[in-house]
Amino acid sequence: MNGADSLADTLLHNGIDVCFANPGTSEMHFVAALDRKPEMRCILGLFEGVVTGAADGYARMADKPAATLLHLGPGLANGLANLHNARRAGTPLVNIVGDHATYHKQYDAPLQSDIEELARPMSHWVHTSANAGAVSRDAAAAIEAARTAPGQVATLILPADAAWSETNADIATARRPEVPVVADAAIAAAVAALRNGRRTLLLVGGMALRAGPLETASRIAQATGARLLAPQANGRMERGAGRVALERVIYRIDSALADLQDVEQVILVSAKAPVGFFAYPGKPGSMLPGDCAVLTLSELGEDGPDALARLAEALSIGRDVRALLNAPGAPSTPTGALTPAAIAQAVGALMPEGAIVVDESVTSGFGFFTHTHQAAPHDFLQLTGGAIGMGLPATAGAAIACPGRKVIGLQADGSGMYTLQALWTHAREKLDIVTIIYANRSYAILRDELKNVGAGEPGENARAMLDLDRPNLDWVRLAQGMGVEAGRATDADGFVTLLKAALRGQGPFLIEAVI
Amino acid sequence: MNGADSLADTLLHNGIDVCFANPGTSEMHFVAALDRKPEMRCILGLFEGVVTGAADGYARMADKPAATLLHLGPGLANGLANLHNARRAGTPLVNIVGDHATYHKQYDAPLQSDIEELARPMSHWVHTSANAGAVSRDAAAAIEAARTAPGQVATLILPADAAWSETNADIATARRPEVPVVADAAIAAAVAALRNGRRTLLLVGGMALRAGPLETASRIAQATGARLLAPQANGRMERGAGRVALERVIYRIDSALADLQDVEQVILVSAKAPVGFFAYPGKPGSMLPGDCAVLTLSELGEDGPDALARLAEALSIGRDVRALLNAPGAPSTPTGALTPAAIAQAVGALMPEGAIVVDESVTSGFGFFTHTHQAAPHDFLQLTGGAIGMGLPATAGAAIACPGRKVIGLQADGSGMYTLQALWTHAREKLDIVTIIYANRSYAILRDELKNVGAGEPGENARAMLDLDRPNLDWVRLAQGMGVEAGRATDADGFVTLLKAALRGQGPFLIEAVI
């Protein structure tokens, strides 16, 4: 077999059976190899940002990596923004990037660039296979790197001659790196802190946002009086009726500072201390009070659920201490004007149990939690790295990871335009996704920020860069142009009608919600 | 004033009065500064690939750089593919990339990444401004770098606090680096070569592809018997009736090798020796015969037109030696089936004098020259770096550089999908662009390459990655969804009717040519 076959076999042997792809000529031998492996599901994205964003969404829900297939430096470059988000989410992901044949590099052909240098900023692990014989063990090393907690982005560069040359190397097995457990001292320090009488914030992220460990965290909070909170943006959290009642750190710096002003100590559980998404003149970078003590129960790459269980035990929390769970009680459907709140209320009212909600609604989604704590239990996936254009692709990946579950995309219009090509993948793969476009026809968050800068009302040049009108985007036509059925709502009743129909149906549907 | 004002003033002072932008919060002070400068034309792209591709197209036609405005690492990453093309075209371009405030980096906020490392592979010059006082001289250095022949990509990173802090630094003037002229020895060597009786190829690129120097090159070829040829892909060439009859190096490796098999020596004029776009097993990387001598008359960054003039003089070529020019004689309009040849014939028949043709038609455009040598004189801009997604943005940039000239985009469907957001910019800026989509509904070039690999007929997985059908893209709806009028043609007569109407009208129009 050749190196390309060796790579495909290694992926399959190690449980990677989905490949999100946009190949080029230099990857044609790998395409031919995949063509010989019907066990591999190959999914085309019409732009590489779709490919990497889908791989991110897939792995968040499948708890295992997908592979991507990208074409040389520019193809990788197009996928970097969503790799950045994946990296911030702690997503396991294996990028396969084709390169020119090793002996062709001397010619500096038109598509040549420094792929390793491009990959490094957004990858935890980067390696170029030297030859066909090295491909399988390199791929296994990539998979191991991807599996390393909390989940890493591994980029394997495959020169064309490493793909097409023959090899009889064995197919390598990737290890599953153990997730390190925290030291007893960290548990003891947290116990002491929770008993020292200070106002404590328990900030819980990563795998500790799944339903089980969150209940443990909630019981700890209930027993000790600590406040429980999730980071502002998270790869995946389990929430809704019957699950822990949980809020997140607020995005806007002034509100966040006010909200956290009384915190005397924070205990981090697989989470980072909260900082401003951006810096603002005269405002602090950390969201915590200056004299707030910061303890780390578990680092991002450590076993947070285990640490919480041991902490609960060390605190001798009795069975009588219950987690604070959301009671069932989905909201009623809204009527009247179509606002972000009305959309949240409608989604909260109508979403089925087991739904997967992918949130890239930016400003429009800031109030989403208020209306959905008591909605049917669901997964909630967020934009973790701030690189817009993750939403539409990630819904595709989530739908592929979880057939039979309804996926709901909460999508800002400006962000949606970044990777709208994903809608075609929704259609081709007949994915069960309802996309809700919050059509406010501006980069609303930037209009806010311009005000914060003290620039007053935007003039012509600022409006030229912040508004999405003149002309308005017609999302119904855009969706239909890629084979996705779509409708437009301009009031809450119309939105509810469309959402009901979309949730009842199978396959992709897009609702342009004019707000 | 603050650093942002200083930057805007420096750009304007040095003749940069167009800024293609997609800003974010960290660039808001620069947006506010631009809002105070109505002399700057700010043009929004709904994705950064649109921004950089437009800046490339603009500078190719304006012969001076535009500025871009990009948001942090991910915003830059999204623009890298078209920076790669610009770098390969020898395009002058000044990227402004915002960054977090310097003191905010300690927090590793969600959007943080290594911007310099991301920029370096696709930039000739990269620098981060240390503070507001340094911004103007840094910007002038960036402009000088961009102006350095043959044109370079300069990336200036602007930390938010360098933008918002006050400065009283002077506004710096950027030098215009002289284009080095070639040494007399290079002229003498070329004279000797052209007189040694060998079969000679004169390969002419860069600024030597403008009408004047091309005539000199043609006269040299006519006088010496050398064969005149252009590289396969070029940033800009002036062609059509009354201009030099010129072919390009062939893209497909086998055809190129056959075409060049008799060449005994090549003289490079601001061009690189032709190499395979990709490597293929068992085929050479260079397109020249193994024993072909390679002489360089002028390097890419040297003054090719001057070198040609001096070479003609040194060869004592008399006034009686005329350049070989295309006679007027545009083709008639086609009828019958709609094929790439019919499209070329129709465009050749109907395009007005001074049209700007931007070619990203990939396989569909391989025969375009055949039908357009005698068309009205026009500029021809190509995909120079092979990173698809340059076409629709570059037409926008060209139209902004040259109001009053008709821009015609020859656009493959697969490539067009990469940056289709550019159509919205066509609509918002009311640009006079006719976009022709070659709707063959596949990555046709890759279907060819899969055959070359010897993989035979594509199976399910290969088709999943190479075909763009299931569902077909509806380009008419996609265009209308972004405010661009559009129509579909399925035969040559229908295409001619639509093209005539589009060329007669003003403003953007898209024709989906189903081939």
Structure commentary:
Two copies of one chain form a homodimer. Chain A is an alpha/beta fold and 515 residues long. Chain A folds into three domains: 3-164, Thiamin diphosphate (ThDP)-binding fold, Pyr/PP domains (Rossmann fold, 3-Layer(aba) Sandwich), CATH 3.40.50.970; 184-314, 3-Layer(aba) Sandwich (Rossmann fold), CATH 3.40.50; 340-514, 3-Layer(aba) Sandwich (Rossmann fold), CATH 3.40.50.970. Chain A is built from 19 helices and 17 strands. Chain A has helices at 3-13, 28-35, 48-62, 72-89, 115-119, 132-147, 160-164, 184-194, 211-224, 253-259, 304-314, 340-350, 391-401, 413-416, 422-428, 444-452, 460-466, 475-481, 492-504, and strands at 18-21, 41-44, 67-71, 93-99, 125-128, 153-159, 200-204, 227-229, 237-239, 265-269, 293-298, 355-360, 378-382, 407-412, 433-439, 485-489, 509-514. In chain A, strands 9-13-12-14-15-17-16 form a seven-stranded mixed beta sheet, sandwiched between helices. In chain A, strand 3 (67-71), helix 4 (72-89) and strand 4 (93-99) form a beta-alpha-beta unit. The interface between A and B is large, with 104 and 104 residues.
